[in-house]
Amino acid sequence: MAGKIPRVPVREQDPQIRAKNFKEVCLGYSDEEAMLEARRCLQCKKPACMTACPVSVKIPFFIAQVAKGNFEEAARIISLDSSLPAICGRVCPQESQCEGSCVMGVKNEPVAIGKLERFVADWCREKGVKFTEREPLNGKKVAVVGSGPGGLACASDLAKLGYDVTIFEVLHKAGGVLTYGIPEFRLPKDTVVAAEVENVRQLGVKIETNVVVGRTITIDDMFDKEGFDAVFIGSGAGLPKFMDIPGENLNGVVSANEFLTRNNLMKAYKEGSRTPIYVGNKVCVVGGGNVAMDAARTALRLGAEVKVVYRRTEKELPARLEEVHHAKEEGVEFVMLTNPVEIVGNEKGWVTGLKCEKMELGEPDASGRRSPVAVPDSHFMIDADVVIMSLGTSPNPLIAQTTPGLERNRKGGLVASEDGATTREGVFAGGDAVTGAATVILAMGAGKRAAAAIDEYLKNKK
After folding, report:
1. How buried is 201 (Cβ within 10 angstroms: 0-12 exposed, 13-18 middle, 19+ buried)?
2. DSSP of 136-157
3. Which pLDDT tens digit goes with each residue over 315-331?
4. Does residue 133 belong to any structural domain of this protein?
5. Domain final position from 127, 162, 190
6. Same domain, yes or no, for 370 and 422?
7. pTM, entire model
8. Residue 42 φ/ψ, nearest 5 degrees
């Protein structure tokens, strides 16, 4: 029976309409649609989807409850492993994780695991259902640096175990990359993100904003002056990378990180916002990841004509297929096998174009992707008045520089074991602060592993 049910499509805003607004693109399942899609699950005895999930959500078990219409029980099952289900259901790369391992996907389309997780979480939020069970306070204090996905996951797991947890966030709003990095049309802030942050608070976690760890307070201060017994660093990777080509200092060149922060955190897209954002008429976004898609689709909604410039082919794009598909539907143009060599400007110091060269693919590099090689004498110009660089980010060095004994690797990430233990006793780290820019769910997985390790460390500490 399950194999005969086609995958239930998710309703979306029309591309021509959504390209002019910041409302969420995907509209989600109705109760009936969710139950029908859940019935497609084969309930495998050895569910590969669970193994592929970085936080090991009990996927077949919650889906079985959705199929029966027991949405609250489905949510309780998810809550055992994930503190951010409405977020993960929207932004996780399910196609390369749980859905990519779904047995149904061998001969048919995989079960829409992400959309079902989102449905359950949204149902809970709308019905006011919360899961706040926790152990009594055990007298131990843990500090968490950063309120992004890794920090929130670590904090919630520790709070459930009875620890007194305080999160220190550098910005004025909690959520980290969930708040400043991912656009409203993919991840609504005032409903979805705010609600899931509040759920973490409901577990007893305290969140202090506007705290620059390394300046306002140091890691040493947390131990010596504030009485914390352990620290988890989940400060992310917010330091943008550039190409180091001529013209990068021209007016109109901006990192995707800054562009998206102005728009997402500071609401520059809203009429009357006091945060300026310059979009211009013709925008080139350099890069091919999810952040590049976010920047391109944001610039499009702000009224610009947008081109994504990428040095490999569409097959090698690291962005999610869904995000590329949505960008194309909305009118973003993709210029492939193209590499910028110079940003050209006028006498007033403003961008007028992007000088590029054509590329062709050579042998695979260390990542397994074929390396782009420049085609001789192939330079050409793309008209542009704004260039958005989306080439990845690296961890900010401030915390490591102000914490004796805390070592970094050659890429700037903190040196940490698989369970998050750093080179400084009592200090753990995970997520982008260790690996460099990655995904929400991988950061959550790192936060959960670190929480278990911190619990073990403090239980055994004499």
Report:
1. middle
2. PP-S-EEEEE--SHHHHHHHHH
3. 999 999 999 999 999 99
4. no
5. 127
6. no
7. 0.94
8. -80, -10
